[in-house]
Design goal:
Elements lengths: L10 E7 L5 H12 L4 E3 L8 E8 L6 H4 L4 E9 L1 E3 L8 E4 L11 H6 L2 E5 L8 E2 L2 E2 H6 L9 E14 L5 E8 L5 H12 L3 E11 L2 E2 L6 H6 L4 E2 H8 L2 E3 L2 H8 L14 E4 L5 E8 L2 E7 L2
Parallel strand pairs: 3-12, 15-16
Antiparallel strand pairs: 1-3, 1-14, 2-3, 4-11, 4-12, 5-6, 7-10, 8-9, 10-11, 12-13, 16-17, 17-18
């Protein structure tokens, strides 16, 4: 008889990603630590960035698409006076200007214009696919890629510190919707000020309800690997409903149920004993399944 390893406890690991690692690198290390290939992440971080990377293990990987849609919070440093091909410090400098003419009071108007519901052109060196090929791959192959603007929400864009000079530096805090590029905010701020700009440091401090207070380094996970259980993840990330025994039985089979949900969806449904069963959405007076986990 072949001994099969038991499936690891389904849940998420909140990892403080180190600089220089890709999100794929982190997933690879987590697969080894968890003893399963069923591992994924909710929202890519660039190699230069550090901070919160939410990694799903086991059945919890099916939650990741819904967790990816959560808002995100960042601390970043923007350099004024130099534009780069990647809109960050890792790319070749394409233009320079003297940013010493910029004072802190000059930042207010352009930052205000980049706050709220805005149309943002993503960095050309991004993972967005153009005719089936990643934009960054096209740029690296020498192509000139122009991506379409897309709607994003920047709910907070605030200056924490300003260091004037020929290459002025600004420390900022940003809270934004999924799909917002902080590199593009740095680029657009520099353009608005007439001196160019790029991102020199980025740290993600929160994804939805998962913050740095829950994050663990890879070294800590090497010593003791554990996950936030899927029941707890669902309860903390979505509106929730505890079902009757009859409705819980129907949900286990993915059937529609007559249940008034507190939100349009996704809503986490739980059995009377507290077990997480499924994510459902409201359709008229009924609730129908998005994903069943029981």
């Amino acid at each position: 008889m072949t001994n099969q390893k038991p499936e690891p406890t389904p849940g998420v690991v909140v990892i403080d990603k180190p600089a220089g690692w890709t999100s794929h690198d982190v997933v690879g290390r987590t697969r080894r630590l968890a003893g399963t290939r069923k591992v994924g992440h909710a929202g890519t971080l660039d190699p230069m960035a550090t901070g919160v990377l939410v990694v799903g293990v086991g059945r919890a990987t099916r939650l990741l698409g819904y967790l990816t849609a959560a808002d995100k919070e960042y601390l970043a440093t923007i350099v004024l006076g130099a534009s780069t091909v990647t809109d960050d410090a890792e790319g070749e400098v394409t233009e320079t200007a003297d940013a010493s003419v910029i004072g802190e009071s000059d930042l207010l108007a352009p930052i205000t214009s980049l706050t709220g519901s805005i149309m943002q052109v993503p960095s050309s060196v991004s993972a967005i696919k153009v005719d089936g090929k990643r934009s960054y791959a096209r740029v690296r192959a020498g192509e000139n890629v122009e991506l379409a603007a897309r709607p994003v929400e920047v709910s907070v864009f605030e200056v924490l510190a300003f260091r004037p000079g020929e290459r002025a530096e600004i420390d900022v805090r940003v809270v934004c919707s999924s799909g917002t590029y902080i590199r593009a905010l740095a680029r657009d701020l520099g353009v608005a000020l007439g001196v160019g700009g790029h991102l020199s440091a980025l740290r993600r401090t929160r994804v939805g309800g998962f913050g740095l207070d829950l994050a663990r380094t890879l070294a800590e996970l090497e010593n003791q690997f554990s996950v936030v259980p899927i029941d707890q993840v669902a309860k903390s990330s979505f509106p929730s409903v505890v079902l009757s025994d009859d409705n819980a039985a129907n949900v286990r089979f993915g059937r529609k149920i007559a249940e008034q949900l507190p939100a349009a969806g996704p809503v986490a449904l739980f059995a009377p004993n507290g077990q997480f069963l499924a994510l459902y959405e409201r359709v008229g007076d009924e609730a129908k399944p998005l994903a069943v986990f029981a």
